[in-house]
Amino acid sequence: SLKAVVFDLDGVITDTAEHHYLAWKAIGDELGLPFTRSFNENLKGVSRMESLRLLLSLSKEPLRFTEEQLEALATRKNELYKRLIMEITPQDALPGIPELLDELKRRGVKTAIASASKNAFTVIDNLRMNDRFDCIVDAAQIRNSKPDPEVFLKAAELLGVEPEACVGVEDAVAGVEAIRAANMASIAIGDAAAFPEADLVLPSTGELTVERVREAWER
Ligand code: B16
Ligand code: MG
Predict the structure, then answer these.
(1) Does residue 138 have an active-site annotation?
(2) Which residues carry the site feature described as Important for catalytic activity and assists the phosphoryl transfer reaction to Asp8 by balancing charge and orienting the reacting groups (predicted)?
(3) Which contacts qualify for 57-62: CB closer than 8 Å, 24 or more apart?
(4) Binding site membership of 170 for ligand 1 (Cβ less than 6 Å)
(5) CB of 151 closer than 6 A to ligand 1?
(6) What is the pLDDT tens value at each position of the chain, 219 positions in all?
(7) pTM of the predicted structure, to 2 decimals
(8) Lower CB count within 10 Å: N or C terminus of the chain?
């Protein structure tokens, strides 16, 4: 039976995917790179340094940055991002999420966060959602980033459940890949055309109910 739901954080619990986008956009603008929202889809769920590498790949001429300069760019993006997430309050949980967490608890289904972000705890603190998850796995606790399944497998392990008894929820292509590689059922939030591999795709978290979670798990 269904034992747990493992949630991605950025873009699923709250709209920090937008904050990541705005921070990378500022760096892209400074460097004169044609960074768009549609290209930003590739950065979702991807680690900070890998995101920077993808952003710089937009340059027509090869960019010769030293390791130090790359670190400085990533740090500056993170400073911009940290400033944006300072403003997050409990009102910023995405639609339907608090209700779904309550309902899962009532039914004895465990919940976890599986985030690629080093800022996950700050975001969850600002949402005042620390107590609402049975466990939280962030970037500091894993070696391999999504699409590697490690972060989802670690969540299942800490919950003490088999991955096969879990549903994972993601807004990123790399994230759905990670869920599938972990042998969990998958729900993607976003455009159906972008997620041919997901067991279920919902346009927004407002549609994410216990019934939909069960539906994905039964596939
Ligand atoms: P940070 P998630 C991911 O979080 C974001 O989707 C991705 O855009 C970001 O680059 C990554 O975290 C690293 O974040 O720079 O804060 O360590 O979606 O897995 O919760
Ligand atoms: Mg995400």
Answers:
(1) no
(2) 115, 146
(3) 58/28, 58/33, 58/34, 59/31, 59/33
(4) no
(5) no
(6) 999 999 999 999 999 999 999 999 999 999 999 999 999 999 999 999 999 999 999 999 988 999 999 999 999 999 999 999 999 999 999 999 999 999 999 999 999 999 999 999 999 999 999 999 999 999 999 999 999 999 999 999 999 999 999 999 999 999 999 999 999 999 999 999 999 999 999 999 999 999 999 999 998
(7) 0.94
(8) N
188: its two tokens: 């993607």
CB atoms within 10 A of CB 150: 18
Note the ipTM here: 0.93
For ligand 1, atom 5: residue with the closest CA: 45
Question: Residue 100 burial (CB < 10 Å; 0-12/13-18/19+)?
Answer: buried
* Cα torsion through 13, 115, 89, 30, rounded to 10: -110
Cβ contacts of 87 within 8 Å, gap of 6 or more: none
φ and ψ of 30, to 5 deg = -60, -35
Residue with tokens 């340094």: 49
The tokens 């005042």 sit on which residue? Answer: 128
Could you confirm whether 10 is annotated as catalytic?
yes
- Mark residue 89 as left, alpha or beta (left: phi above 0; alpha: psi -120 to 50; beta: remaining): beta
199 labeled binding residue: no
**Minimal-distance CA residue to ligand 1 atom 13:** 117
Residue in this structure with the two tokens 């911009």, named with its chain if needed: 80
Phi, psi (degrees; rounded to nearest 5) at 74:
-65, -40
